[in-house]
């Protein structure tokens, strides 16, 4: 599956790793807010939510989170980049 197919799959959880304040200012409908600084402590919660598409403001923080989760054995996780891009691809 390509990124757009992942974004629109009913099985995929979209996780926004921005701060709660940023998330409150706009987000992808149905997404979950788990700030980057909480990802490590919430790894098992995230494991149960796979497959995952992560997003943030520009793709930097979601890239860090994707790399971290992949280092912990996650196979079904993609960096979606900017939340606005993910939102634009969501049907």
Describe the secondary structure blueprint for this structure.
Blueprint (H helix, E strand, L loop, with lengths): L2 H5 L5 E4 L3 H5 L7 E2 L9 H6 L3 E5 L3 H12 L5 E6 H7 L2
Parallel strand pairs: 1-2, 1-3, 3-4
In brief:
The protein has helices at 3-7, 20-24, 43-48, 60-71, 83-89; strands at 13-16, 32-33, 52-56, 77-82. With 91 residues, the chain is an alpha/beta fold.
Q: From N to C, what is the helix and strand string?
A: HEHEHEHEH
Distance between the termini: 16 Å
The count of helical stretches stands at 5
How many domains?
Answer: 1
**CATH homologous superfamily assignment:** Rhodanese-like domain
Share of helical residues: 25-40%
Shape: globular
CATH architecture: 3-Layer(aba) Sandwich
Which strand-content bin applies to the residues? 15-25%
- Tell me the Rg in angstroms: 12 Å
Strand order of the largest sheet: 2-1-3-4
Would you tell me the structural class of the helices and strands?
A: alpha/beta
For this structure, the CATH topology is Oxidized Rhodanese, domain 1
Count of beta strands: 4
Report the biggest beta sheet as strand number plus sense, adding barrel if it closes. 4 strands, parallel
């Amino acid at each position: 599956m390509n990124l757009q197919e992942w974004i629109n799959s009913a099985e995929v959880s979209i996780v926004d790793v921005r701060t709660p304040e940023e998330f409150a200012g706009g987000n992808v409908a149905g997404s979950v807010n788990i700030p980057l600084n909480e990802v490590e402590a919430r790894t098992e919660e995230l494991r149960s939510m796979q497959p995952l598409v992560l997003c943030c403001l520009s793709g930097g923080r979601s890239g860090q989170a994707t790399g971290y989760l992949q280092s912990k054995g996650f196979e079904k996780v993609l960096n979606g980049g900017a939340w606005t891009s993910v939102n634009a691809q969501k049907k």
